[in-house]
Amino acid sequence: MPTKSMLSIRPNYEIATRYGSAWQIEILNAARVPVVDLYGPEATGSNFFSAIEAQDPSIVNIFGHGNYNIIACQNGEIYLEGGVNTNVLSGRVVYDLSCRAGRDLANAAVNEGCISFLGYDEDFIFVVTKGNHPDGGMSNPLADEAARGFFESHNYAPISYLKGSTISASYSSSQNRFNYWIEVWNAIDSQVAGLLVWDRDHQVIIPIPTPPTPGGLAPLLLMFIPLLIIPLSKYLKKAKTL
Amino acid sequence: MATEEEFNLIEKRFEAWNEKFVIASMQFGNYTKEEALEHIKARDEIGQKLAEIQLYYLKKLKER
Q1: What's the whole-number average pLDDT of chain A?
Q2: Angle at A76 between CA A137 and CA A143, to 5 degrees
Q3: Where are the domains of chain A?
Q4: Among A15, A25, A16, which residue's Cα sits nearest to residue A61?
Q5: Is A99 in contact with A76 (CB distance < 8 Å)?
């Protein structure tokens, strides 16, 4: 049985991973459970599998380049492959910011017992503002207001879950944040809005959460209906005689 | 696959785009406005992808 904790992996070796790994800090800061953070050179496959074994985390927060059936860590090392070793995600809730892995890899993981997998079934695209960093972006990715909408929208999902929301609500929270930023950018720059729409619509959660059934207190309330009908019929009889 | 007419539309959109931004991705590379335009004009794989994304947005706008 996994322990209430989170394993996070965030490579950092070029502009996309430098930006993404920086914005992942928001998720780490929101965690109220023990966290193992594999960052930069520590974000290797062997460290990931060792941490899974030692920590047995209930939440796995993944960031890194990906493709339909793979996810890579530091320097592009492929460490997760759908159907090959995704069984390590069994019994865990996964939030993944990678391109495309929300398609085949996510399905393989869920088929092998992963509780849920939130990811992207196509490319995750974002905008960077040109800056003074040697890679062409801004030195501080967290100060890049153009990038904010993309990463913040994604982050709302794991943050919401870490704060106690259901998996389904965490997905909705992220979708709503995308919608907020799409409206903001529609008024500023429709190209940026277009990329946000793409990311929003390619965000997937597997398995798809079922809508809430009219369960809960409804059966209990139904039991009390006869108690309401009896006084009501008495009242109606009385009203008739008048 | 985008039609010639659609490519021309996307080309115009990119020509009008802000020079200070770079399109970055977790898989298919990073592109400045000029680089994006080169790919779109070349009608290559990257150009196709960029066109696909923007056409998707325009389609969604139309549906609103």
Answers
A1: 91
A2: 25
A3: 3-211
A4: A25
A5: no
Residues A189, A198: Cα–Cα separation, whole Å = 15
- Residue A176 sits at the vertex; the CA angle it makes with A186 and B46, to the nearest 5 degrees, is 55
Confidence of residue A230 (pLDDT cuts 50, 70, 90): low
Tell the residue number behind the tokens 């998996």, with chain if given.
Answer: A167
| Residue A211: predicted pLDDT | 67
Q: How many residues does chain B have?
A: 64
What residues in B contact A99, CB-CB < 8 Å? 25-28
- The one-letter code for the residue type at A159 is I
Closest Cβ opposite residue A123 in set B14, B27, B32: B27
Q: Does domain A3-211 have CATH number 3.90.420.10?
A: no
Of A20, A67, A193, the CB nearest to B57: A193
ipTM for the complex?
Answer: 0.94
Question: What is the pLDDT confidence band of residue A1, given thresholds at 50, 70 and 90?
Answer: confident
**What is the pLDDT, as a whole number, of residue B57?**
96
R_g of chain A, CA atoms, integer Å = 23
Query: How many CB atoms sit inside 10 A of residue A52's CB?
Result: 18
Separation CA A152–CA A23 (nearest Å): 8
Q: Give me the amino acid identity at A111.
A: N
The token pair that represents A145 in the structure block: 């207001």
Q: Which residues of chain B have pLDDT under 70?
A: none
B26 contacts A66? CB cut-off 8 A:
yes
Cross-chain residue pair A129–B21, CB shorter than 8 Å: yes
Nearest by CB: A197 against B23, B32, B56: B56
Give me the sign of the Cα torsion angle A84, A48, A170, A58. Answer: positive
